[in-house]
Amino acid sequence: MKKPSTNVLPHETPNLRDHYTIGNKLGHGQFSTTYLCTEKSTGIDYACKSIPKRKLLCRDDYDDVWREIQIMHHLSESPCVVRIKCTYEDNVFVHLVMELCTGGELFDRIVNKGWYSERQAAKFMKTIVEVVVACRSLGVIHRDLKPENFLFDSHEENAQLKAIDFGLSIFYKPGEYLCDMVGSAYYVAPEVLHKRYGPEIDVWSAGVIFYILLSGVPPFWAETDSGIFKKILTGQLDFESEPWPQITETAKDLIKTMLDRNPEQRITAHQVLHHPWIMDDQVAPDNPLDSTVVSRLKQFSAMNKLKKMALRVIAGRLSEEEIGGLKQLFKTIDTDHSGTITFKELKEGLAGIGNNVMESELVELMNAVDTDNSGTIDYTEFLTATLHLNKMQREENLLAAFSFFDKDNSGYITQDELQQACRDFGLQDVPLEEMIKEIDQDHDGRIDYGEFAAMMRKADGGTGSRTTRGTLKFDLAEALGDSQSNKTQD
């Protein structure tokens, strides 16, 4: 197959080695090698995942890498997801520069310990399921949850566990079913083998990890992949062997509900986080957790007008890779493809990604986001209201936003400049004096950069080997029979 003469990124980038010193190899998979790299300007260490373009054999392979980059940016606000810093591309490689995690794989710690106590396992499971919730609430299916794809950020006993590999992750639309066979044999859900699945598969994979954390062995085991698949489809969970007699019924109950073969009856990720075993036997609250999108909409609705305008400026200067996930999410909610989101679409869209919001609360959110009072939310309004906070607070973005308002480059935003900005954004009846007084810490009647940055960073109310672009080779009839197995291609 002829390799396409195109790039992964839609824009040219500087040379990686002009900005980073490349160090020792940290690990490798079938499609990439990860190196230690040090930023020359700061001396800060990062991990650089380098993907050789000679292994990208068709346009789909290029698109897969581009999607992985977008999804990592899309999820980058979550503390349980490794943060992507930037990407570079040359004639030979695509490089993903990411937060460095030095504490090793969850898989290695399981192997070293044999199995974990229930309380230790609960801590790790909470993080793993929070990754599932983050994916679910942003319209993503991970599709390859396994211990090898989680690293600790340090060697400390209380180190933060982070998901690091999104090479098989995909954007999805509520109600649609996927059919391509991807994943890793031990962790694949039965509906993947039936080639009709949705986001529920991530809960199954998390349930398999849960079983391994407590027992040290996978729940469905065989010598061949075909044998594993047969066990996944028909096998029974073993709660009789050691150490299961010493494990609480509450933990076993949670595993059973996560490994329910019927995806419609399987417990949801939100319900897992509310389960008494995860909650450390506290009473689970009745109110559902806000999805990521709803949390961001609430934060936006609590912001003052200047901060909302500044966010719009920042949104306009972000790259396609940084906002691609939100663009996909907008398209998912905009079901009639009109370019705007109606109240009905917002309500149904949020429900589709696992969040049912009270109608009165939704009206308030809609009104807050619909800054031009058109009765709908356009793409720019949606993007502005759902931006990652870490992107909003980056120094270069704050400087660009401040410069937008400081038209005369005086180093201050005056009332006249604010008034002009409000006209530019179509905002009326804005109490400018009150806005300036709220932000103006030295009471000189204007806003300097320090005051502007403080306002922007202030919290608002509301509040082993890695699988990349791999596929599972599987025949359903064969797995249910006794014929020769097919192998999983990582």
From TrEMBL:
Alphabetized GO MF terms: ATP binding; calcium ion binding; protein serine/threonine kinase activity
Gene3D superfamilies, per the entry: EF-hand (1.10.238.10), Phosphorylase Kinase, domain 1 (3.30.200.20), Transferase(Phosphotransferase) domain 1 (1.10.510.10)
From the UniProt record, list the reaction(s) this protein catalyses. L-threonyl-[protein] + ATP = O-phospho-L-threonyl-[protein] + ADP + H(+); L-seryl-[protein] + ATP = O-phospho-L-seryl-[protein] + ADP + H(+)
- Quote the CDD domains the UniProt record gives: STKc_CAMK
InterPro entries per the UniProt record, alphabetical: CDPK_Ser/Thr_kinases, EF-hand-dom_pair, EF_Hand_1_Ca_BS, EF_hand_dom, Kinase-like_dom_sf, Prot_kinase_dom, Protein_kinase_ATP_BS, Ser/Thr_kinase_AS
Locate the residues binding ATP: K49
Q: What is its EC number?
A: 2.7.11.1
Please provide an example of a Pfam family that matches this protein in its UniProt record. EF-hand_7
Domain Protein kinase per the UniProt entry, residue ranges: 20-278
In Swiss-Prot or TrEMBL terms, this protein is called non-specific serine/threonine protein kinase
Give the source species: Lactuca saligna (Willowleaf lettuce)
